[in-house]
Amino acid sequence: MYRWLLLILLVMLLGLQYRLWFGEANLRQVWQLEDKILEQREINQQLAERNKRLEAEVQDLKQGLSALEERARSEMGMVRKGETFFQLIEPEPENPRR
């Protein structure tokens, strides 16, 4: 009697272990998904920080002229009246084959 009960419990234990390691949604898949979740959280954090910076820039553009002026100068090359624009050109490197 005890031998059969022990055998049944052992078979059930092996069946559960099989499902745990090799069945649908096994431990390896769970670990991989946890790693993907951590990666996605890092990406989300980076994107949230970028969104905060963009929101601050938008607010600055709406409220102040200094950000707008800085952007016009750096992206469009604009200068104020009475200012002189200087452009520095770096020399090309000499050709070593000559």
From TrEMBL:
**Coiled-coil ranges per UniProt:** 37-71
Query: In terms of domain of life, where is this protein from?
Result: Bacteria
Topology in the lipid bilayer is annotated as: Single-pass type II membrane protein
What ranges does the Periplasmic topological domain annotation cover?
23-98
Q: Which GO terms describe its cellular component?
A: cell division site; cell septum; plasma membrane
Keyword Cell cycle tagged: yes
Q: Which GO terms describe its biological process?
A: FtsZ-dependent cytokinesis
Report the principal subcellular site: membrane
Query: Span of the secretion signal?
Result: none
Q: Where in the cell is it found?
A: Cell inner membrane
Sorted alphabetically, which keywords does the UniProt record give? Cell cycle, Cell division, Cell inner membrane, Cell membrane, Coiled coil, Membrane, Transmembrane, Transmembrane helix
Q: Which residues lie on this side of the membrane: Cytoplasmic?
A: 1-4
Cross-referenced Pfam families: DivIC (PF04977)
Q: How does it assemble?
A: Part of a complex composed of FtsB, FtsL and FtsQ.
Q: What is known about what this protein does?
A: Essential cell division protein. May link together the upstream cell division proteins, which are predominantly cytoplasmic, with the downstream cell division proteins, which are predominantly periplasmic.
Protein family membership? Belongs to the FtsB family.
Protein name from the UniProt record: Cell division protein FtsB
Gene of this entry? ftsB
